[in-house]
Each structure stands twice: as structure tokens, then as C-alpha cells.
Write a structure and sequence with these properties.
- The protein is globular and about 55 Å long.
- Helix 1 crosses helix 5 and helix 6 packs across helix 8.
- Strand 8 and strand 9 form a beta hairpin.
- It folds into 2 domains: 120 residues, Response regulator (Rossmann fold); 99 residues, Arc Repressor Mutant, subunit A.
- It is an alpha/beta fold and 231 residues long.
- It has 8 helices and 13 strands.
- The chain starts with a strand and ends with a strand.
Length: 231
Amino acid sequence: MKQIFLVEDDLSLINGLSFAVKKQGYGLDVARTNCEADALWADGKYDLVILDVSLPDGSGFDICKKIRKASKVPIIFLTAADEETDIIMGLDLGGDDYITKPFKLAVFMSRVNALLRRSNNFSENDREETELHSNNITVRLLKGEVWKNGVQIELTAGEYKLLRLFMENPDVVLSSEQILGRLWDCDENYVDSNTLSVYIRRLRTKIEDDPGHPQRIITVRRMGYKWNSVE
């Protein structure tokens, strides 16, 4: 059974989400404050985390920071308003998706199922290979580790999946639509190219020697991006 961790303080919303999640056959633990979340959280226990941005004693961003220090578990943010700054901040901190309130339960479950499905697909693929090597970057698939020039670097789940997609398709130009379709279900209209731009920028800051002049993830004007395999 997939286990979901929900951090939300609105009781009516908690009741609705609990009903929808359990109806799908998932387990659910709920925390209503940052303090409760700290007490309940355990790395490896959950398959998905859902964080409300605004909480009585802090922010979902704070919880995300703590989780990302130890875990690549997929994270969805719930935002009260379609504020671009909140969305970008959530993605920059390591969030994998966001949902803007108010939302329909059917849409919510679609996003949850899609993220769990993508996460599971990557885990299954890890069993088929053990490592990827290209341009002084090594991805150890069985461990979910990324190394640059022999030094381990920390990536979020979204960054890790994006890097894998590039390295599995070296020197091939991938359009934004192709990338989104593989990683963020492009057939769902809630994802846009701005989200991808944030991920690309964030990944470059971690794997490029000079993020302002990238040599590994190359922008191909009016076409998309490609992984440069030449060292």
C-alpha cells in the first residue's frame, strides 16, 4: 500500500482529501502543524508528501527544506493562490508539483496518481541498469546517487529524473513538450514550460561548472534542450 503524508490545517479540506486518498487504496497520515509534521515524519515511510504552504506555526516550505536534507520522496505543494513567487519557491526548494486552491478532488487525485506512477516507473527502471556515465557525471541508479568529478551532489527527485532523462538520451534534442510529457504528464494541462525552466536552471546550478555558460545541458534555440556528452 502506498503511504501518503499530508500536512494541512484546514479540517474540511483534510476530511475531503482523506476520503479521496483512502478510496484509492492509499494509506494516509495527517499533520496539522509544522510541529506535528516533525514528530510524524520518517524517511522511507512515505511514498508521497503533500504540503500546504501556509500553516499555523510556519510554512510548508520549512518542512520541505528539512525533508530534502534526507529524502528524495515526491512532494506536492498546496497553494492558496496562483502566486508565481510561491510556485517558483516551492519548486526551487525541491517540490515536484503544485496544486492551486480551490481544486476539485478528481484533479487532486489525478495529480497524486500521476506523481506516484512516475516515481514508481523510475524505481523499476533502476533495476535494469546500474550506472550512467557522461561528461564527468555519474548516476548510480540503484542508490539514487549523483556524482560530479568524483564528488557526490544532492539532487531533488525532480532534478534527478530530469538529469536521468538527459543522460539516457545523449546529444539528442528534446523539446519542452517531450520532456514534460515524460516527467510531468504533458497531457495534463496544469504543467507549463515555466515549471521546466525552473528545473533546468536549478539543475544547472548543481551540475555545471559555470551555470551561466552551461556545457552539459545545452539550450538549442527554438527547439529545446540536449545533453552534451562530449567532455
